[in-house]
């Protein structure tokens, strides 16, 4: 069932039509994808198309929806960029430094993937609330309220997108040859020049790809954000929560349109991430081209 | 910030690093990841062990656990079959559009879980769904019921298995299968005795990832479920509901159970990674 590109149809009574003459593994794959992915995606596109272009635009750009885009896409960008910087630092610590607790740090990085988002949301909301372990000092020292404000939403997005940059930079940093840095250093480059002109450019594709993946994840995140946000429109209501609210109001048209906006965003970001990864591979294969 | 940037290059010329970079890394991860994880444990046992154990007398909590298990037990085997079929079909063949197909399989990772749930509602809702008429004629209940929630879990988790097995199969090559075939093995025999054993650790790895995500899935399930306590509430939904009702202890108790599952899956993953002995810890598992 697994290797012959096309199994000749059996002669016993039933014959598969020509285009269905494929191995069983292919049949399962296509059937499953059709039921689980293509059918829902197609439905969504159909429903969105049925709304009509002018009404689509109207529903997609209501002030309420625009406010959630600003919050979702803006805060996710903030979170992804923050993780771009700190993810690099963490990857650097993991690859280039040896210190007690390095292995623990390494395992902790994967926790946002393993911890169910509801648990993460609960924990973050509690810890950053005004009487939480971190929220209390932040409130006392700076008068900052984190939980149930947009800051909390940003923190949840930081949590959820932290592993991406670390895990995409780590292997590139490991493969980086120390010779180049030593050469730069011998030629009289200062440590700062070495970092900015030799190391960072080579890490850039990996950093950007990690940032893009984290961004895409943070934009779509619901479980942890909904628990730390106060879900007040125009203040800290994110787009996925707005979709759920519209569904609860039986406003299917609005939910479909806003969902479609998010879906289109996902498709574009998927293309972008794939592009970045191809760029990264080409870069590794032939760095001289790009410098 | 500027002080940190200035200190960064100093780690360079000497292999012995300054302590600043690990310190910043640990502080950041501590604030964002470690402290929240500890908070769940502390919160669950805030009043000692007895109140924590009493939580499990809650009828709603028990039904939430059972529903979560049911969705997981449907999603994981289904996705395993798909993952193995897709891997054996795709991995060792070159054909136009292969990269595109692989991206399509990865699609659920990029789509917001809420949008996944919305798509299923638009498809199966008896009042507004595209197949609503069919569904109500047949008398099925999909949305606001467990079949929809199991389906949502399937959609969100199906890429894990395929994406773990495909790269390994690609590396392994054809030789062993060809040898088995030359010796007269049937397709099934080749699959069970040669192909499957050669990727067994990737399958275990995929199982862990799929199970962990299926147990913890929130957004997609929340949209389809209707969130009725005792009926269509999975464990993650129960955590949120209890928290919103200010039933903090119950929320923490349930969160600790869920978090424990996450932790166990993380440990298992580390063990399997060791067993696999592969340096492919590189890709984020999403």
Description of the molecule:
- The complex is a heterodimer of chains A (291) and B (286).
- Chain A is mainly alpha-helical and 291 residues long.
- Chain A has one domain (52-290): MetI-like (MetI-like fold).
- Chain A has helices spanning 24-51, 53-60, 63-96, 102-109, 111-114, 117-127, 135-142, 150-175, 178-186, 191-220, 223-228, 239-248, 252-285, 287-290.
- The longest helix of chain A is centred in the N-terminal third of the chain and has 34 residues, at 63-96.
- Chain B has a single domain (49-276), classed as MetI-like (MetI-like fold, Orthogonal Bundle).
- Chain B has helices at residues 2-7, 20-44, 49-54, 59-90, 98-110, 113-124, 132-138, 146-157, 159-172, 175-182, 187-198, 200-216, 219-225, 235-244, 248-276.
- Chain B starts with a helix and ends in a 10-residue tail after the last helix.
- In chain B, 47% of the residues are buried.
- Chains A and B meet through helix 1, helix 3, helix 4, helix 5 and helix 6 of A and helix 2, helix 4, helix 5, helix 6 and helix 8 of B.
Our estimate of the beta-strand percent of chain A is under 5%
The helix/strand class of chain A is mainly alpha
Number of domains of chain B: 1
Would you tell me which CATH topology of chain B applies? MetI-like fold
Enumerate the spans of chain B where pLDDT stays under 50 for 5 or more consecutive residues. 12-16, 279-286
The strand count of chain B comes to 0
Give the tags.
heterodimer, A: 291 residues, mainly alpha, MetI-like fold, 0% strand, disordered N terminus, B: 286 residues, 15 helices, globular, disordered C terminus
Give a topology summary.
The complex is a heterodimer of chains A (291) and B (286).
Chain A: H1 24-51, H2 53-60, H3 63-96, H4 102-109, H5 111-114, H6 117-127, H7 135-142, H8 150-175, H9 178-186, H10 191-220, H11 223-228, H12 239-248, H13 252-285, H14 287-290
Chain B: H1 2-7, H2 20-44, H3 49-54, H4 59-90, H5 98-110, H6 113-124, H7 132-138, H8 146-157, H9 159-172, H10 175-182, H11 187-198, H12 200-216, H13 219-225, H14 235-244, H15 248-276
Helix pairs in contact in B: 2-15, 4-8, 4-9, 4-12, 4-14, 5-9, 6-8, 6-13, 8-12, 8-13, 9-12, 10-11, 12-15, 14-15
